[in-house]
Amino acid sequence: MATEPITVHAIINGEKIKTEKTIQRENPTHPEEIVGYAPNNTKEETIQAIDAAFNAFKSGAWSDVNERIDRMKRAIQKLKDATDEIAELLSREHGKALYDAKGEIAISIMWMEFACDHVKKVVTPEMKEHENGKTIITFDPIGVVSAITPWNYPISLSTIKIAPALLTGNTMVLKPSPFAPLAVSRVTELIADEFPPGVLNLVNGGAEVGIELTSNPKVAKIAFTGGTNTAKHIMKAASETIKKMTLELGGNDAAIVLEDFDVNDERALRRMVISNFLTAGQICMIAKRVYVHRSIYDAFVEKYIEAANKWIRVGDPFHPDVTIGPVNNKNQVEYVKSLIEDAKNKGAKVIPLGKVLHPELMDNGYFLQPTLVLGADYHDPIVVEEQFGPTVPILPFDDEEQVIELHNESIYGLTSSVWGEEEHAIRVARRIEAGTTMINTAAVQGLDVRFPFGGVKQSGVGREYGEEGLKSYTETHVINIPKSLELPYIPE
Ligand code: NAD
């Protein structure tokens, strides 16, 4: 069902700014349909947005935490009221199934509410009296935050930054990805409307805008989610003025299936299949390689294929039976195809999974039928690269030492999952290098916004979510009032 294209604007100092150059966003299900236009902002407009955020921060006009919570709660209510409309727009521009788009908004709201409920605890100064006198510790806002987000979860990966940054008293310029800029712009607009001008600004565009946001001296912190290679550029750009940073980056998450996993547990297999292919595999925190103990490998593969054929239904994201829509963009389709081709050429077996409900869409849209790759080598690109698409290799392992080594030799360490008897799985989990490890589940089903989320090694720096995520938008300031004003170690 084609609708009229919409146009979203940049927001600078509370004003919607119309720009000449635009980014056109197509519908991945029907690429000939334009869903809408976002501005293609210039470097100059980006500087204006940073200046607006800088001045709003300096004015301190909104420094009361209770007021900030009230404003955010009003924005949350508006987001709740607009969920259906925004989810449809997200589904259309992104390609994710409608239930998945609604789920993304639900997670965003859950986190924004958690942030409202916990921010006072995080920013309340601590007073300590001790043998040396008194110490006051305050948790102050940092300043202007540049938030840069990817296309796969544009709303939740933006609100994960907007809510803590604004609630702790910072100001922000947000730049979403050109591959899904529309729904997130709508969400940003409704939040920005609840705050004084300049507190939350929005620009769109590609690397030029990103480079200004990460190098401008008025920016104090960068909150980035995206690829590890982009993060390397960002770190360099930010080094000149030593900016604070939270980086949520790529992963090559593994699922480890132990010998005591029950291959006849249909619900567990459903969880695994869904968590491998949700959002057509375009989630940072889903299993991109599955290692199964050799003693149950054959039975596991058989049951996995059965479960996948039942639960994976590919087609129009608006159809209620569809669990997986198209891939977001053509580049991603080509990249995933090239990894599958490479595996095939090296002798791996590629098995199509799931039912295609709308075959008439497959050739024209950015669809990829989900696949299982068997017989790949442990170090083939399909195993060691982040595929970020609907394909997964399953490989056998012989013992725990081997699988832990295979897991930990990756340059990444975002999330992982261990499947089997709980105590055994926990023992294995404790030896895994990752920011989060889930037991007998994976992906968003195993996510809990109350606890910190982030990666080790080249999967990131710092944590989002939880109180730690809120605190990462504050600077700790220690004020010491010593009892004795003598200088004990210095000769008179
Ligand atoms: P990307 O790195 O290509 O782009 C992310 C954002 O950075 C976009 O807004 C892009 O326009 C911007 N950008 C590009 N070049 C820039 C530069 N030089 N300076 C500043 N900004 C620049 O990533 P993507 O393709 O949009 O997203 C997919 C990647 O994101 C995957 O690697 C995935 O694992 C990762 N990701 C990580 C998490 C997490 O929480 N760790 C969550 C989701 C996605």
Automatic annotation (TrEMBL):
Matching PANTHER family: ALDEHYDE DEHYDROGENASE-RELATED (PTHR11699)
Domain Aldehyde dehydrogenase intervals: 20-478
InterPro entries: Ald_DH/histidinol_DH (IPR016161), Ald_DH_C (IPR016163), Ald_DH_CS_GLU (IPR029510), Ald_DH_N (IPR016162), Aldehyde_DH_dom (IPR015590), LUC3-like (IPR044086)
Keywords carried by this UniProt record: Coiled coil, Oxidoreductase
Residues forming coiled coils: 62-92
Protein name: Aldehyde dehydrogenase family protein
Pfam families: Aldedh
Organism: Ureibacillus galli
SUPFAM superfamilies per the UniProt record, alphabetical: ALDH-like
The keyword Flavoprotein is assigned to this record: no
Family stated for the protein in its record: Belongs to the aldehyde dehydrogenase family.
Active site: E248
